[in-house]
Inverse folding.
């Protein structure tokens, strides 16, 4: 499914969020708390937008690795990185069995991918495993807001699948989106599960009136 929608993925993201998804990713990059010379991992990197934002923070001596299982997405991420001369490496891999050694990164992020994992807790544990003690794990995800419920339901149940059909020619992929959001835990529960996966000082901040949340925690020593 993700390979199918890769050619229109960025365009759909901009349309679905009125371009705000880029500022949300910037917020996630800031929460990663990496600086020049650092090493960061972006899980479920897709077409690489968040990975490139992390690269802006760790250059010129740092490194960013993006991992995803959709090769078509990775091809587009590599094209973006090459066009910008960014120090990013994009590799195929499974978020539930990351192909990296323990404690090899200063931070790990995931943007709009955690809700797709077959096992959320395993994915969180893997992110904590590959980050050094004291490093950050950041989860940016769509959630069901307490406010704007009527707008939220109309947008995700009707407008988003319609955009998927018209723009990407794949309504089924974008009908999947609202279903995956509803299965995802509420912010407080996600924070508890991050703590159970090996993180301390877990905090979160609502974006877009609570439709999106950015969580971050420090890997336990």
């Amino acid at each position: 499914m993700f390979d199918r929608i890769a050619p229109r993925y960025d365009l759909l993201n901009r349309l679905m969020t009125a371009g705000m998804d880029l500022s949300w990713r910037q917020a996630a990059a800031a929460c990663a708390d990496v600086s020049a010379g650092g090493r960061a991992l972006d899980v479920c990197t897709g077409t690489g937008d968040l990975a490139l934002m992390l690269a802006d923070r760790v250059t010129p001596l740092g490194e960013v690795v993006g991992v995803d299982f959709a090769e078509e997405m990775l091809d587009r991420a590599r094209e973006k990185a090459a066009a910008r001369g960014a120090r990013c490496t994009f590799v195929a891999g499974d978020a539930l069995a990351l192909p990296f050694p323990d404690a090899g990164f200063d931070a790990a992020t995931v943007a709009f991918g955690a809700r797709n994992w077959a096992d959320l807790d395993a994915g969180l544990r893997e992110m904590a495993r590959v980050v050094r003690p004291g490093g950050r794990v950041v989860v940016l995800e769509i959630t069901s807001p307490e406010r704007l419920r009527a707008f939220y339901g109309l947008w995700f149940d009707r407008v988003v699948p319609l955009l998927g059909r018209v723009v990407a020619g794949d309504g089924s992929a974008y009908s999947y989106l609202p279903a995956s959001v509803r299965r995802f835990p509420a912010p407080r529960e996600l924070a508890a599960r991050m703590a159970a996966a090996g993180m301390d000082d877990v905090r979160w901040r609502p974006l877009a009136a609570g439709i999106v949340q950015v969580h971050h925690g420090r890997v336990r020593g």
